[in-house]
């Protein structure tokens, strides 16, 4: 299966880079924090026998531009530009904060045929402490000071509830450079999720596109609770669990194949 590299220009003039793989009805893959188009490439390959799959660099990542000023609206426009580029309508799959972006776009009426989301990171119960309202400002300040390590660590510990000792071990891994390389985009993910990662029930209730909401059977309790809450809030949404998987499901994309191809049709 061949993959072609392309770009599309978003509404504010920012170039958005993407890889196109496969043939069939289009599906756009939206990665979350610390992700670019390469981290969803495995899922693109998994879905490409039945679909034209678009794996893109969200703005500020990879080969996409950053634009002059970030806002959630700009990211929604990026997704809308991709959909328009592939024919005016497409299915969307989003992972983590990418799932939040997909939900926001659907709530704002972006033309999509179906929406599948994996573990949008809303906090809806007391199984973890809610991220502080000023986390966005503190992460952005560390980035402005050039402290990418500190920004990545703060995001992981307070934003994703990753234990500090785990993050300290991660900092000794060569892969840590990947995290710091994308640290400047973490405020984008925090802006998408909003202060405290509060479930935006009023907006989600406006979604009319057929929606599949997925979690992993081995994921943290707070992520599973938030996922279930999304399924309960989006009108007519279907809820499904991938047994044996957690938030890192993109490392094993074949586990999503049957579920997604069945839903996308």
TrEMBL record:
Organism in which the protein naturally occurs: Amycolatopsis japonica
An example Gene Ontology molecular-function term: triacylglycerol lipase activity
Domain of life, per lineage: Bacteria
Swiss-Prot/TrEMBL GO biological process terms: glycerolipid catabolic process
One Pfam family named in its UniProt record: Abhydrolase_6
Cross-referenced PANTHER family: AB HYDROLASE-1 DOMAIN-CONTAINING PROTEIN (PTHR43433:SF5), HYDROLASE, ALPHA/BETA FOLD FAMILY PROTEIN (PTHR43433)
Positions of the AB hydrolase-1 domain: 28-257
Gene3D superfamilies: alpha/beta hydrolase (3.40.50.1820)
Protein name: AB hydrolase-1 domain-containing protein
SUPFAM superfamilies assigned: alpha/beta-Hydrolases
């Amino acid at each position: 299966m061949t993959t072609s590299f392309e770009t599309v220009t978003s509404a504010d003039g920012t170039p958005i880079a993407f890889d196109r793989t496969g043939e069939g009805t289009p599906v756009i893959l939206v990665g979350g924090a610390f992700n670019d188009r390469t981290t969803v490439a495995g899922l693109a390959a998994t879905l490409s026998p039945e679909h034209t799959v678009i794996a893109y660099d969200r703005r500020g990542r990879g080969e996409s531009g950053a634009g002059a000023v970030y806002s959630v609206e700009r990211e929604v426009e990026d997704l809308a530009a991709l959909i328009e580029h592939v024919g005016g309508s497409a299915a969307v799959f989003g992972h983590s904060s990418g799932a939040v972006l997909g939900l926001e776009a659907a709530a704002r009426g972006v033309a999509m045929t179906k929406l599948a989301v994996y573990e949008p990171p809303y906090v809806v119960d007391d199984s973890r402490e809610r991220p502080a309202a000023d986390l966005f400002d503190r992460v952005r300040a560390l980035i402005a000071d050039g402290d990418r390590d500190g920004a990545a660590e703060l995001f992981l510990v307070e934003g994703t509830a990753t234990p500090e000792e785990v993050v300290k071990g991660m900092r000794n891994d060569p892969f840590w450079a990947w995290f710091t390389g994308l640290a400047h985009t973490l405020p984008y993910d925090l802006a998408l999720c909003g202060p405290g990662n509060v479930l935006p029930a009023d907006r989600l209730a406006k979604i009319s596109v057929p929606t599949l909401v997925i979690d992993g059977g081995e994921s943290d309790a707070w992520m599973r609770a938030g996922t279930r809450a999304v399924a309960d809030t989006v009108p007519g949404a279907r809820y499904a669990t991938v047994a044996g998987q957690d938030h890192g499901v993109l490392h094993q994309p074949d586990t999503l194949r049957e579920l997604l191809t069945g839903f996308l049709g």
